[in-house]
Amino acid sequence: MTPTDTNAHADAHATPRPGALDGVRVVDLTQVMAGPFATMLLADLGADVIKVEQPGSGDQTRTSWGYPPPGRDSPAFHALNRNKRSVTLDLGSEQGKADFRRLLGDADIVIENFRPGVAARLGVDYDSVRAFKPDIVYASISGFGQYGPYAERPGYDLIAQGMAGAISITGDPDGTPVKCGLPVGDLGAGLLCLYGILGAHVHRLRTGEGQYLETSLYEAVLALSVWESTEFFSTGKAPERLGSANRMSAPYQVVRAADGHLTVAANNQRLWQRLCQALGLEHLAEDERFATNMARMERRPELVALIEGRLAATTVDEAVTLLLGAGVPAGPILDYAHILEHDPHAKARAMVEEYEHPVEGPTRVLGFPVKLGRTPARIRRHPPLLGEHNTELLTPATEDRR
Fold it and tell me: What is the C-alpha radius of gyration for the chain, rounded to an integer number of angstroms?
C-alpha cells in the first residue's frame, strides 16, 4: 500500500466513500455460516445484499446460542449479517415467488445454500432464475456439491472436516483425532464461493454473460490441504497427525517454556543456526543428527526435547524477546480475550469494530481483514431485524433506497 492509499483508507472513516461493489445487488438465500459469510463480505465491499428469510423464524442463527427472547437476535447472527437488508418471503407461495421475481429485477448475483434439489423444488434454482434474468451470476454452496456419491448427505463443517481429511491430520500423534478449532469447511466454502462470484461478475461485466457456479464444504477443506496432499502424492503414504508441528520443516511448532508455550519457526538452515546460537546450543548446529531439515524432521521429538530443556527456566516473554532479537520468528500463544480486548496490533489494524444496534445497543464485531486503500470496507448497516426491509423492498409504490 502506498502512503497515498494509506491516507485514503484513514480518511474514509471520516468521509465515507462508495464501496468497491457499490451498485451491485445480491439476493441472498443463505443461512447459518458459509453463505452468510460470503454475502457479508460482498456487503462489506459495498454490495446491496438483500437477505431473504422464512417468515416467523428467519435465519437459524437468529435463535442460536440459548434462544434469545423474541425480537432479539443472537451474537452469532450479528457476526455474519452486517450491512444487509432483510425481507421475509414464503417461497412456497405464489406471492412469495412473485416478490422474489421483483427482487431479481435489479439483481446481479443470487447465492443459495439449500441442500441439493431444494432450490429447484422452490422454483428459485439457476434455471428458473436464468429464465427471468438471463445474465444472472448464480452461486450455490452445499456440503458435498450438487452431484457425486455424497451430494445428498447433510453438509456440516464437522462432517466435511472428517470426510475431506482435516480431522485425520489434526491432533497429537498418539491422541484422539480432533477437528480444526476454526470452522474451515464453512468459512473456506464462503471464501471460495466469493472468489468464484467475483470472477464470474468480472466476466459478466466484460461479456454480458451470466453463469452458474458452485462449491462445497468438502471441496473447501480438501482444497486447503496443500501440504498434506503434496505429501501423499510424493510418498504414497497418508499424512499423519503432528500436533502443532509442520510436515515440511523442523523446528516449526509450539514448544514449552517455564510458564507456558510459545511458537518457534526456524524453518530453514539459516534460521536453525540462529536458533542454536540464541539458545546457547551451538553444538547442535554441528551435530549430524540435526544437520539438515530432513534429519531434524526425522528426530523431531528428540530435537524438541532439547529445545524445551533449554527453555525450562525461561518465561514465554523472555524466550520470545530472545528469539526475535536473534532474528528467529517466534511468538506467544494469545487467547481471544487478550487479542480482542488488549492486543495493540489488533487495535492498530482495526480488527474490532463497533456499531449501534436498534435493539442491542453498542455491539462489537470483527473488523475488516482486507484494507482497500481507495474503497475501504465499512459498516453501513446493522445486522437487519427479521423482515426489517419488507416495506422498503416489497411495496411497489415505495422508492427503493439502497
Answer: 25
